[in-house]
Amino acid sequence: MKRFDEILHNGYSQSFDITRIIFHEKTEHQELVIFETPTFGRVMALDNIVQVTTRDEHVYHEMLTHVPLLAKGNVKDVLIIGGGDGGILRETLRHASVQHATLVELDRAVVDLSLEHFPDISNGAFSDPRTDLIITDGVKFVAETDKRFDVVIVDSTDPVGPGEVLFTESFYADCHRCLKEGGVLVTQNGVPFFQGDEVTNTYQRMAKSFADNSFYTAVVPTYIGGFMTLGWASDDAGLRHVDVETLRARFAAAQIKCRYYTPDLHKAAFALPQFILDLMRK
Ligand code: SAM
Prior knowledge:
Blueprint: E1 2-9, E2 12-18, E3 20-26, E4 31-37, E5 41-46, E6 49-53, H1 57-72, E7 77-82, H2 87-92, E8 100-105, H3 108-117, H4 119-122, E9 131-135, H5 138-144, E10 149-155, H6 169-178, E11 179-188, H7 196-207, E12 212-218, E13 228-234, H8 244-254, H9 263-269, H10 274-280
Parallel strand pairs: 7-8, 7-10, 8-9, 10-11
Antiparallel strand pairs: 1-2, 3-4, 4-5, 5-6, 11-13, 12-13
Helix pairs in contact: 6-7, 8-9
Bound molecules: S-adenosylmethionine.
S-adenosylmethionine (SAM) binds next to strand 6, strand 7, strand 8 and helix 5.
């Protein structure tokens, strides 16, 4: 049986049995492979790094979407940077309050191949009338747009290759510019046990533009190395501390059924282990 070895971390990797390779080509921007596995269903990797699997995608997509949208409440305009598989877009559109979801993806091939080979992940979200799909570099979009958003969600690859620009101080400053007053920025921020510098760098870079920034955590089995950090930034420090009764009420009113997210977990996710607190203050 063939295997896929992800070698994101020096000297430590995860390996998948492959039952079938569905697609493997270099797009205009990155190497894209899609394959079937007995354990994690269908998997997509970009430049050898696992992006999404049909077995555990809901964890990441629920936590990166419902935490900011329920903390903020009554969110109307959402900007998604990256996210070409459509998972964040799907979860965003489950909120009836959302009127516009703008998804800015660099690589058209990721969208097209996700629609073809992972239709359940986007689950029709790309054809929702509230969706505006823009194929361009996220850095360019946030620097130039005159639109304003309640929430910006950066569902990027890791800070290597095309995703690297989405971890810079100037990018976070432009995200701040695109947010309405009191809006929230959340980001994919790696696995701190192996990518501790991403915590240190993101914390320092976001703090240059936002009054309040920190992280929250989620456990995604195929983002190996323990839990992952999700970056959080807003000028409204209260949004990180919304009480669990309010979260429970908003979650119940939204009538969204999740497999990972709960209001109590939302609250607990912001309690960080000491090593992450130490990385933030390095
Ligand atoms: N959930 C995954 C993770 O946590 O690593 C990310 C999945 S999503 C497929 C990542 C997307 O970011 C890819 O489709 C990639 O093309 C896109 N991307 C990378 N750099 C980008 C950029 N500069 N602007 C817009 N999209 C970008």
